[in-house]
Amino acid sequence: MNLGDASKTRAPRRSGGSPAQPDAVRHGVEAHGEGLPADHTQAILEATKEIGSLLKSSGCPFALVGSVAAYAHGIPVRLQHDTDFALRRQDADTVVQLLDAHGVELVDPSEDWLIKARVGGESIDLIFALAGQAVTAELLDRAEILPVDSVRMPVLAATDIMISRLAALSEHHCDFGVLLPVARGLREKVDWDRVRRDTGDAPMAAAFLYLLELLDVVPAVADERRHRDATR
Fold first, then answer.
1. What is this structure's pTM?
2. For residues 173 and 24, is the Cβ–Cβ distance under 8 A?
3. What is the Cα–Cα distance from 222 to 228, expressed in whole angstroms?
């Protein structure tokens, strides 16, 4: 089965006929509030393990991303939505054929940067881009092998999690309350210099990094420079 075959099954619309949530919302650790589904943590973990095991057998590079990746890094999040895996676009047909051969339901989204699947009633997104940037071999090579419940699999590196989350911020989606516990939990694993460098002058990312400095989650830029100068 190729991507054209997958398009024969149309993804169900969300309640109320609203469009799918943007990348910035779907790939984060979302805040709890009204209108969110019940805690699906164990069901999502079971679906993640099943798809992760199949992807491992494919020989194609991939990495777990999104809220389940944060969970794998030890962030105590309550899983409520889908599982996201990043893979290269050129591997899409191989992965689709593998999932189809194992009876995984494939659905066709309107977006051209992902494939959607369902396992045990839970949604799985196989994505080719993070915050608009193509998934590359270099990104996947930096992934860490971590246990997800009982299955070990590649998980997006902590620094790349923060970069992709900050790059996804916009005037229409700028919930720092969602990002703050992730940054706190990952701060010892993150290369904050690279985060600052890769997010550049993006105003929302700069504002969040400044907030982290004020909260003493990360050192202020000036303090880091003084420390580097003193240790030279």
1. 0.77
2. yes
3. 10
